[in-house]
Amino acid sequence: MNRGPIEEMSDVEVASFAREILVRKLTDRAHSRADLAQTLAQKHVPDDVAAAVLDKFETAGLINDEEFARSWVQTRQRSKGLARNVLAMELRRKGVGEEIAKEALSGLDPEAERQAAHGLVQKKLRTMRGLDQQVQIRRLTGLLARKGYSPQVAFDVVREELDFEAQALESL
């Protein structure tokens, strides 16, 4: 539908416009309430109209920050191998409240997080054959640091994987 400037719309048209925006965004994937509010603000939807429409969507169960946070953490940890602190930062950027973020992150298993770090290092190591070990260590620990792993975990995981690879080569 081709609409004129939002300032020329009636209140009913503005509310309908806001609902259309939310439906379009939520069709792609779940979003946090704050993320959706920001989208409406960018489209110049007045704050009172945005709040009313967001409230209706939340009441209907179409917006749920707890579910969004839980799903975001599981997906990003599984697909990208991100550590807890990077996931927390991403949730803050998405406008998820501190308590909701803590609850979503509490479901992360530290051992699964460490295994994800091992998986990242193993995958990257395949492309680093022939490089000096110091270069490998620097690149691999940098990779894990960017994913949010602590320096201690990064160095431990990299050392374990390099030692395992050296043992495998010796046994050939």
Tell me what you see in this structure.
The chain has 172 residues and is an all-alpha fold. The protein has three domains: 6-59; 65-106; 110-170. Helices cover 73% and strands 0% of the residues. Helix 4 (65-80) crosses helix 6 (98-106), helix 5 (84-93) runs antiparallel to helix 6 (98-106) and helix 8 packs across helix 9 (151-170). The longest helix is centred in the last third of the chain and has 20 residues, at 151-170. The mean pLDDT is 92.
Q: What's the layout of helices and strands?
A:
Blueprint: H1 11-28, H2 33-42, H3 47-59, H4 65-80, H5 84-93, H6 98-106, H7 110-125, H8 133-146, H9 151-170
Which terms summarize this structure?
0% strand; 172 residues; elongated; mainly alpha; 9 helices
Element order: H for helix, E for strand: HHHHHHHHH
| Proportion of residues in β-strands | under 5%
Total strand count, please?
Answer: 0
Provide the structure class: mainly alpha
How many whole angstroms does the radius of gyration measure? 23 Å
In whole angstroms, the N-to-C terminal distance is: 68 Å
Mind summarizing the main beta sheet? none
Q: Please, what is the average pLDDT?
A: 92
* Total discrete domains: 3
Provide a count of the helices: 9
Q: Unreliable runs, pLDDT <50, ≥5 residues?
A: none
Helix content: over 70%
Morphology call: elongated
